Amino acid sequence: MSRYVLLAVLLVLLLLLPSCSKKILQSDEEVATFRLLNVEIRFIFDTIRGNQLMVINGNDRAIGIFVADNGNRSEIIYSDSWLSGGKSKSQAASFYDGQEIYLRVVVYRSLSDAIRIFIESLGPDFFDHLNDVWMEDVDDEIFTLKRTG
Q1: Average pLDDT for 23-43
Q2: Does residue 132 carry a pLDDT above 90?
Q3: Structure pTM?
Q4: Fewer CB within a 10 Å sphere, N or C end of the chain?
Q5: Hey, which residues does 34 pair with through a beta bridge?
Q6: HEC profile of 54-123
Q7: 96 with 130: CB under 8 angstroms?
Q8: Which domains does the chain carry?
């Protein structure tokens, strides 16, 4: 009987091992692209302005996005509490090859202008102050940037 228990434990461990592996985001030349909740995040290496981060919102509703160093989440790479549906934004950002990135995206429900103005005023740590009823979907990812170009 104990042989079957050991076999079952080994089988469970084998099933869990692939889910424990780290995600690696490889760049295509100078751009590494990540997609989450119909949002595309582009990490662009070595533009004439240095590194750039571009966010493209493919949703018809607004989103909030938070990108930070996973080892030190107070080291914010990019934070935007409100990006309207169908819009995009690009700005200089500090990231590097081999960096482990923490990414969080929230898709908001249809909200009144008063709530939008409040959310926009929250600053870079806006996720800590959001009310669950305002959010339709939230997802977190951790991955390592890998530059190939």
Answers
A1: 86
A2: no
A3: 0.79
A4: N
A5: 41
A6: EEEECCCCCEEEEEEECCEEEEEEEEEEEECCCCEEEEECCCCCCCEEEEEEEEECCCCHHHHHHHHCCC
A7: no
A8: 2-146 (2.60.40)
